[in-house]
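Tutorial handout. Part one gives the primary structure; part two gives the three-dimensional structure as tokens.
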Amino acid sequence: MRERRATITDVARQAQVSRATASRVLGGYGYASDAVREKVHRAASQLGYTPSQTARAMRTGRSKLIGFVCTDITDGLFAGALGGICAVAESYGYQVLVFNSMDRLDLEIAGVDALVSQGAEGIIVSPVLVSQSGHLLKLADALPLVCLDRQVEKLPSVVSDDVYAASLAAEKIALKGHARIGFVTSVQVEEPISLTTGGDGLQVQGERRPSVQRARGFVSGLAKAGLAPTEEDFCLVDHRRGDGLDRVTQWFSRNEDVTAVVAGDSYQARIVYEALRNLGVRIPDDISLIVFSDADWPEMVSPALDRISLRARGMGSEAARSLLALLSSGSTSDLVTLDVDYHEGNSLRNLT
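Part two.
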């Protein structure tokens, strides 16, 4: 038989104070002497008392809950961002409810609705589709909301400098004397990367999502180095299909003259590394590699991989601060763009 949960009345009886006094101490409001506070907290600890969020919300009109809806909590970016969100939220007395949308718009909508029904005072969202954010725009009229990792027009957004990051990767490889450089990235079929070649060379078009921004940065970085990328230099993979390894392996087989690759996100970082290993291609002797990843594994393999980190924890912290600013003052920055970090490994071969 499950034990009865301790109540505020039990704590008051144990501490030999009134229920109102125990409520003030544990609720963090009103006056109580240090001696009384110590007695109440000691009694609560002895009884294993935990406050009811529902009761607190009914009493104060504040749930002290914020929500986080992300596309894939197993991704190093969102796991790191969650750490930053929780740290900032806890310092302001908030708790965080998390919903994983699994990169599906219907689950994102369901997750947002669930968080609202749970009494979340504000929500941080990594939108599945930036072009289909009407439900978020509507919600933002009634509830503080901040977007993370994807910029949505008319909503406060916290993103990394994806264009600069990919440009940096391309330039670093080009400076090593590589002339044929590939770019492998995940794409969302509903918001694809469009590659067209015209008089001004290769052009990248699409929504303002990370994959598109990084593709633009990659082309820009090669152009600065005097290189002209082609559409065949890109391997675009829908990571939700489950055939990414086969598609990347086939791309490498068709492009054996590629001497360096940028893996443009954490999914493709793992797939590219596995594909090269399966093909018996040596890093960096046969091919040079830079990966986008906020996980630690690229530094733990041999040779350690050159890696671009998006400062995931910092992104989460900044998103939480923006949300709390909305909660306290009703305003925050429209767009916060964070720098990235370059972690040098041993995966670039010098051809000069």
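Part three, for discussion. The chain has 13 helices and 14 strands. Residues 194 and 205 are 5 Å apart (CA to CA).
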